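Are you able to produce any protein sequence you like plus the matching backbone structure tokens because I've never seen that pairing?
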Amino acid sequence: MTIEPTAFMTKMETRIGFTAEDKSILKSNADWGKDNAAKMADHFYAYLGRDEEMNAILNAQEGRMHRLHETFIEWFHQMFTGVDDWSEKYAKIRWHIGLVHVKIGIAPQHVVPAMAVVVHEVGKQLRVDAKSEELKEALGRICMIDLAFIEQAYVEVSSTAVLRETGWSEALFKRLIATGASSM
């Protein structure tokens, strides 16, 4: 059930409506993204740090917070540059980020509201800096694509683990999930 990151990126671009114009707008504002990345990281980790469970995960290892802060800055700036025009390299980086979230235990219940904080704080900063509504919309779309990668990582890791452990077919697994959802 493992996804192919570039194909997933293409599918998400279509579903979310992330266009060539969005990419152009983001690229033309890459310096703004770089200049504001650390500030957005501060908002993001301040939010997560207020949650007892997340705070424990973030501080489980010496130096983790510093590494995560630096990674966030890089992630944020990459949304503006696209690394490789939002293609194979970008998709692989985003898939890896999703897998890391799963590995260290940052669940969707934390990721989704944290991304909402990023989108909200970015919107506030864009207004302060008199940036365009088009930039806000383009950033919103790429944030949702990045969020989709993280969410999909949970699905893929969970599904693969169950299939490997049980020997079930993918069709049986999907049928059991559908049946289970119907009974809830």
